[in-house]
Amino acid sequence: MYFESHAHYDDKQFSEDIEELVEAMRQEQIAAIINVGADMKSSVKAVELSKKYDFMYASVGVHPHDVVKMLDSDIDILMGLAAYNKVVAIGEIGLDYHYENSPKEVQKLWFREQINLAKAMELPIIVHSREASKDTYDIIKESRAYDVGGVVHCFSGSREMAECYIHLGFYIGVGGVVTYKNAKTLKEVVKAIPLDYLLIETDAPYLAPVPNRGQRNDSRNLKYIAEEIAKIKEISVQEVIDKTYENGKKLFIK
Predict the structure, then answer these.
(1) Is the peptide bond before 92 cis (omega within 30 degrees of 0)?
(2) pTM of the model
(3) Element (DSSP H or E) covering residue 15
(4) How many CB atoms lie within 10 A of CB 69?
(5) How many other CB atoms are found less than 10 A from the CB of residue 54?
(6) Which H or E element spans position 177?
(7) DSSP 8-class letter at 220
(8) Which of 77, 171, 218, 238 is the most buried (most CB within 10 A)?
(9) What burial class does residue 199 get, using C-beta atoms within 10 Å of its C-beta: 0-12 exposed, 13-18 middle, 19+ buried?
């Protein structure tokens, strides 16, 4: 049974065939999916999907690209959404200095505010961090986000940074990028980090793994990610599947 720790089935790429896809994923032993909000609209949609499909859960939050548009009242709206019992995390939240669609200081402000929301709701966080490793880690540590824990999704940092996160009790999210030939650093991270701290994700519809790279991604591709992790760590694929399922339940579904 697979635990999908990060997907975006609210995305318009799934608007035409979500019903068929849900049935196909059930057949492929996808047991749980965290559908992750990235702005106010997708957070609402994530909750709606969690109400419609029994194996889908929701995370609500605003991605760093979109925090420039946030209002103080949005925190109250997110708090209301997070009160629903199938909302299991706040996210994805964090920092993205690659595109810097929102000014850095604005990103930091709303990252802190959403961490405070997570602590108030006693929910873990789903962290987006791109080219902002030090600032992301510093804010998590300063704000005591480790009190609620969480996962650094689609991890792109160094082995040393991954080790810093797991020392705070955070999980490392590994997706399709690990199957890419040029993903040397991520492969080193996977090799070094204990399986107890790994989660698998697709980030569907993005970042499909080999052999489906470039296509629309969905949770049926988790098997390729699990196979690559097993190869790197020299363990069985079933061990990866079972342990990441256990890890996902431990973090998100108490």
Answers:
(1) yes
(2) 0.97
(3) none
(4) 13
(5) 10
(6) none
(7) G
(8) 171
(9) buried
Burial class (CB in 10 A: 0-12, 13-18, 19+), 214: exposed
Rounded Cα distance between 191 and 187, Å, is: 6
What pLDDT, in 10s, does the model give residues 40-92? 999 999 999 999 999 999 999 999 999 999 999 999 999 999 999 999 999 99
What tokens appear for 102 in the block?
């929102």
Query: 63: which residues sit within 8 A by CB, 6+ positions away?
Result: 38, 39, 92, 93, 94, 96, 128
Q: What is the dihedral of CA 208, 58, 41, 205, to 10 degrees?
A: 10
**Terminal alpha carbon distance of the chain:** 17
Pick from 120, 15, 10, 22: nearest CA to 63: 10
Q: Which of 18, 53, 56 is nearest to 34 (CA)?
A: 56
Q: Are 139 and 167 in contact (CB under 8 A)?
A: no
Q: Give the whole-angstrom CA distance, residue 170 versus residue 94.
A: 14
Residue carrying structure tokens 């510093």: 138
Instruction: Round to whole Å and give the CA distance between 244 and 185.
Output: 21
Supply 74's token pair.
């949005």
Residue 145 identity (one-letter amino acid): A
DSSP bridge partners of 126: 91, 151
Element containing residue 217 per DSSP (H, E): none
Q: Over the chain, what is the mean pLDDT?
A: 97
Parallel, antiparallel or unpaired: strands 56-60 and 150-152: unpaired
What does the pLDDT look like over 65-76, one tens digit per residue? Answer: 999 999 999 999
